[in-house]
Amino acid sequence: MQENRKFKELTLEELKAKQKKDKAFVRILSIIILITAFGLIYFAIKSDKYNLLTLCGSFSLARFLCSYTLKQIETEIKSRNLK
Questions:
Q1: Percent helix, strand and coil across the chain, each rounded to 5?
Q2: CA distances from 65 to 11, 25, 41, 56, 74 (A)
Q3: Which of 40, 48, 57, 59 has a 20 to 30 Å separation from 29 between CA atoms?
């Protein structure tokens, strides 16, 4: 909620700039997570230490949180465009 209030205080141009920056961040984060996940899967299978696979779940949680913030920004932009 507090983050949503912060978005309401920004201008539309600032929101669009933040959206663009956050989209780039989520894309880069997704690529890094994908590469790291493949590496973890490879090393888990090679070394028979399958507990490394639990880290893949935490990566998806991090990406979810970033995507959630991006969705809040997009919702705020859409609500302003409807007015």
A1: 95, 0, 5
A2: 23, 12, 23, 15, 14
A3: 48
CB neighbours of 69 closer than 8 A, spacing ≥ 6?
Answer: 3, 22
Q: How many CA atoms lie within 13 A of 39 on its CB side?
A: 7
Tokens of 14: 């600032």
Q: How is 34-71 classified by DSSP, letter by letter?
A: HHHHHHHHHHHHHHT-GGGGHHHHHHHHHHHHHHHHHH
Report the residue count for the chain.
83
What's the token pair of residue 82? 């409807």
Look-up: residue for tokens 């997009």? 74
Residue range 37-47, pLDDT digits in tens = 888 889 888 98
CA atoms in the 13 A half-sphere facing the CB of 61 = 5
